[in-house]
Here is the input.
Amino acid sequence: MGAMPFRRLYLLCLFMYKLSLEVAADVQESSDGPGAREPVWLTDVQAAMEFVAAAEVTVIGFFQDLEVPAVSLFHSVVKHFQDVSFGISTASEVLAHYSVTGNTISLFRLVDNKQLDLKSEDIESMDATKLSHFIQRNNLHLVTEYNPTTVIGLFNSMIPIHLLLMMNKASPEYEESLHRYQEAAKLFQGKVKRSFFSKLLQLQILFILVDSGVKKNGKVISFFKLKEPQLPALAIYQTLDDVWDTLPITEVSVEHVQNFCDGFLKGKREKIMTQKKRCQRWNSDFSLLLLRRTK
Here is the structure.
């Protein structure tokens, strides 16, 4: 285990961010094609709640007025995201349920139970390319593939612990390994324990897939001091203090992933308990000092 300078990761994110803008532009230049997708109409709160719960990432356009330019903007990006569910609603009770006032486009994701809103003032200054980029960078799934369009969202997420599976997608074991990795991710979904030191103890984990067959991903792999013969491998990274650990594995299994994560989290817990004991001892010593001064 060692420390990784966060500045290096930030510079990498900056580089990937520039690439993601190019990808978003390419998306907008593509043709509509046959069978263009349409958003699902959501007429009541129950339907909206079920719609959000049924997909890992959902985007809903909440509109009070269907004549505003934002409506056509919303429709224009739907066809470009096959892994995202799109809905639309004008029902006042639905807007109120999601604390929406005015015309708003909201992205919901189950991985961290977030609702990210683009409000009227944001939408008015947007075009289809910018809206596509907003969806791309926040399109985080139970297992999110690391690429130029997701890297900013991954590092902007409030989930402080990232687990990376580094593996070549062209390998014959990939599909089965991915399935096991996804099963392991479900075990940690929404798993958060809070205490007096809750800001330090966050057990929720963001699961990431890094295709080692992509040349540009070699920079990510080298950050963790791994080489090609050591792959596939797991790497776990704590964004708050740049602490990380790695585990080369011959087989991806739910047990390997769970044990590796639990071991890392146990180390974090022990570190926090040590900090708590130091704080308690300091408070005790400070109280004793005040008592002596008052005598």
Remarks:
- Residues 254-294 form the longest helix (41 residues).
- The radius of gyration is 22 Å.
- The mean pLDDT is 80.
